[in-house]
Amino acid sequence: MNKYLKKPLSVFLILTMLITIPVYSDTDPPTPILDGTQSSWAEAELMEAYDLNLTYPDVMENFKADITREEFCVLAVKLYQALTGSVVKVGDDPFDDTDNPEILKAYKLGIVKGISETEFAPKNKITRQEICVMIYRTLDAAIPNLDKDITGTYNFSDENMIASWAIKEVKFAYKNQIMKGIGENQIGPLQNTTREQAIILLKRTYENYHGSENGLGDEIIEELGIITTYKPTFSVTTEYLKYKGIKDDDLVFPEYDERILIIDDSHSTFIDSSVSSKHLFKFKLDNAHGASKVVWQVSTSPFIGFSDNWKTPLGLVGKGEVSATSGEFLVDFANLSTSSFSLINLNTFNFNLVSSQYKPIPQIQKTYYLRAVPVNSLGSPIGDPGDGIVVLYGEKVVDVYPNQAIASSFQLWTPLSSTGTYSGENQDRPTYRSVVTVDPRNNENRLFHFYDLDSGYTKIALQVSTEEFPTEGGQWPDTPNIVYEKEYNLPINTIYTGYPNSVFLDFTEFAKPSSEIAAGEYTKYYLRGVAIKDSTKPGTYEADYSTPITIEYGYSDFEGWYNTSPYDRVETLNYSLPDLEILEYVPIKWQANNYFHYYYVYRAPKANEINCYWKNADTGYILMPYKLHESYFKQMGIDNAQEYETQIIPKVLVAGTKVYFPPPKEEQKSWYQQL
């Protein structure tokens, strides 16, 4: 070989061995998959943590499992490397029960210690106080000037359970909102943490500290050159996860730092106006140190959860304040002010204003938005005001699904005779009969028993129709072809022992008398029961149905069917058509069937009103929310919201801009309908 080539070739081979790292192929990347065990609230943040390289595939499954000491070591090292921007070298191995290089890195950094000089116990479940210690040590190693102040009052009712070697770190984590309490002033130092909780805990810690000034130690850090590699993306296994995983120019859900919890059954509640217009809401402060009052607000529009203009939100119809120690406040929904909105001058867009004679269809339910905001002595909010909860006010309605198949969940029983016989040798007790013959000459008042009716129902109803009940749609109370319907509140006094929830049906109330019916002429009626109970969805009832039965109404030998339906009566009318001559024809200008997808910007938006992504179709520029990307905009020289409003927003949204909301793609249809 040419002697002049030997040295360069040797250097090249050495460099190749030193810097070769495993990378994923562009054509065949590994695809981590969320396995469905994650909580819905955690999905988006788990994906974000992965994108930030704060987690790894082995813990991206079985999310409800408690995380181990080994697994949390890997996460802690990833947090350190994300904060410092460098990679840690593997140190000495003093342990007999593990050779995991990530544990050895954490040991070298001083993040973790063994349970003895030679034992680490990698498979042990980590406790909350151990997590606090490891996060504290990680931050201390990554941020030389870390603020470690823990002065203040910590009213942990279980403080005596915190180990002496962890008390400082637990207080640090609590004060800096890294670790929150578990309720009733408890911090739960000996409890375990699930994988998803641990991942999100470190992700939020990274977000709070990643801008801090840090220094890098040469004895630990190995500097690497910039190498572009393929980062695998998540494939998600449910339609809901596809929806939550949408990025770039689609939807974004901001997270708010709310320091108060409105205690209720769910994120929404229902106030029944027929019972009372007043409702007492209880609240609990969460790390709201310095709160002197709690301000509550009711609006007809959803709240923007950040603090900008929080005192005068759009659609505000009610407000009040209580002491921060009261724990509750009362709202009278019948005494809210009428929400008024100033008219917007849209003449430049040639819009036709709605006539003043317009009257909206009255609604028996109204949607309000309610939030409570802890404030300090200066009236400033502590944390973000947040978006609060949804409140439905009005009367309960049936939760109807127009295209849902109707399934039977109980039966209607009736005796052979109209009332039955319940003693003696020849008893005639109620049982299920798919067809029942009723003789109009007897003026029957027939007993029907609701059989196999579960507890929890609040009322029942009988429905009689001249047509068979539909198998899809036609739910109560909007059932077609009904000629008779009667409701009963439960419980019903027992008529015959052993047959509770029984009622009488008087056929003379809807059927023809025998004097108007010829012998052998029969009419078919269809009968079913409807049972009503409270739904888990606020402000709604659920309706369950019996198996329908057929009533053959007539007497003597059958000769033919007679239809008494008021919906099928037809009369033929004599008519004549006038002679017509078309003098002029102007085609109707129909509204475009997709006009709901097109809008105009009528004024320049404010920074706090941009809460999702907007794309300029001409330039391709994407407008991102300021609050979610503040650090990015600072790198671009945008130092505050005012500069964002004057320099960034006009690139996409200026007054008069046409805005198009595209219909969902076919692959997005299922989650879009769910939304």
List keywords for this structure.
675 residues; Immunoglobulin-like; 4 domains; 12-stranded mixed sheet; 5-stranded mixed sheet; 11 helices; 26 strands; extended; disordered N terminus
Residues in helix, %: 10-25%
Count of individual beta strands: 26
> Residue ranges: pLDDT <50 for 5 or more in a row?
1-31, 213-252, 339-361
Kindly state the mean pLDDT as a whole number? 79
N/C terminus separation:
70 Å
Main beta sheet strand tally, sense and closure: 12 strands, mixed
Rg on CA atoms, Å: 35 Å
Query: What general outline do the C-alpha atoms trace?
Result: extended
Secondary-structure-based class equals alpha+beta
Q: Helical segment tally?
A: 11
Q: How many domains comprise the coordinates?
A: 4
Percent range for β-strand residues: 15-25%
